[in-house]
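User: Teach me something about this protein's shape.
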Amino acid sequence: MNTGSKILLLTDFSEVAGNAASYAKLIASKINGQIEIMHILETPVNWVKLPQEREQFYPETKKEIASAKAKLSEMVRALEISGVKAVASLIYSFGPENVFSHVQNSKADLAIMGSRGMGISRGFLLGSNALKVLRNVKTPILVVQKPSEKSEIKKIAFLTTLEADQEPVYARVKDFANLMGAEIDLIFINTPYNFFENEETDRKFAKFTDHSVKVNRVLINAHNMERGILFYSENYTPDLLVLAKSDKPGLVKLFSPSLTENLVQEHDFPVLSISIA
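Assistant: First, the predicted structure itself:
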C-alpha cells in the first residue's frame, strides 16, 4: 500500500459496517487515499437488463434501491466533509453470482468489511459470503467487528512462520506500518507440532529484522496457533493483527484460511488477511 491507495469499504449499513467505516476513514486520512463505498443489493430479477418500464412491477426493490442510494450519498458526504475522498458503488446482485468477484474487480489496494452484518437479504457481511470473500479474494482484507478505540494505528501485530515465503508479505506489512507511523510486533508461536529451540528462533528472527521500522520480537509457546494468538492479543493489545494466509499444502495446518475465519467469527479484534502470492 502506498500514499493515495484505493480502499474498498463494503457496507450493508449495519452498525458493524459502520465500525468498519471508522477504520476506512482512519487509514484513508493517514495515507491520503480514496474510499470506494460498495453496497451489494440482491434483486429478484436482473435489474441492469430490466427495461425501465418494467421497474414499476417491483415497487419494494425500487424502494430499497432509493434507500441504498440515499445512504451511500450520505456516507460519501460525511467522509468528504472530514477531508477524505470517497465515491459510492451500488451493485445489483442477481442469481448465484459470486459476491467476492465484485471485490476482486474493484482493484482496491485494501478492502475493509464488518465481521457481522444484516444478512444476504440486505447485504453480504454475514455468514458464508463473508467467508468466501476471505477465502477467495487476493486483495488484502481487513475484517472489523468493534469500533476503533483509538484515533491512530500505532501497533501492528504480524503473525508469521518466519519462513522465506513470508518475506513478501512482511515487506507489505512494513510499508503499511511506515504509512501509519506504527511499530510492528513480529510474532512467532512455538507449538508442539512445529517447535524450534532458542538458537533456531533467534536465527529466524534475525532474517526478518531491519531498521526501516521499529520491530519487536515476540516469541510465544502455546499448544496451538489460536491459543497463542489469544494470549498475545490479551497481553500485548495490538491495534490490528495481520495474518499471511496460504492454501499451500505445507502451510495448511499453520495458516489455512480456516484460521483467519475462526478468528474473525469467534473474536472481536481487527484482523488483516494478506495472501501469500
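Now, about its shape. The beta strands are 6-10, 34-42, 85-93, 110-114, 141-144, 155-159, 183-190, 215-221, 240-245, 271-275. The first strand starts at residue 6 and ends at 10. If you'd like, I can walk through any region in more detail.
User: That's plenty for now, thanks!
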